[in-house]
């Protein structure tokens, strides 16, 4: 059930990403969705990762694949 809730959050939040440039806000999921969309437009393979910060809070970030095949994380969006 927890996995289903997380998946639904990503589906619902992906539409929120369209408004981030307008409202200059959003949480880490909104920003991760927007960054992933931009990377994919530029031809990169990109994925959203869910995890925890060092202090145990939930966080979403993006990883993109370099031409060498190495995955590079983007943790902070500010």
Please give a structural write-up:
By secondary structure, the protein is an alpha+beta fold. The protein has one domain (2-74). The protein is 42% helix and 24% strand. It has helices at residues 2-16, 20-23, 28-41, and strands at 46-52, 58-65, 71-74. Strands 1-2-3 form a three-stranded antiparallel β-sheet, with helices on one face. Strand 1 (46-52) and strand 2 form a beta hairpin. The protein is flat and about 35 Å long.
Quick recap:
This protein is of the alpha+beta class and 78 residues long. It has helices at 2-16, 20-23, 28-41; strands at 46-52, 58-65, 71-74.
Would you list the SSEs in sequence order as H and E?
A: HHHEEE
Shape: flat
Count the beta strands: 3
Count of helical segments?
3
* Radius of gyration, CA atoms, in whole angstroms: 13 Å
State which percent range the strand residues make up: 15-25%
């Amino acid at each position: 059930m927890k996995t289903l809730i997380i998946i639904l959050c990503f589906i619902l939040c992906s539409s929120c990403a369209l408004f981030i440039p307008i409202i200059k806000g959003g949480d880490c999921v909104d920003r991760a969705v927007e960054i992933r969309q931009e990377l994919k437009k530029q031809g990169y393979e990109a994925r959203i990762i869910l995890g925890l910060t060092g202090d145990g809070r939930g966080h979403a970030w993006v990883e993109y694949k370099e031409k060498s095949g190495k995955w590079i994380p983007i943790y902070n969006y500010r």
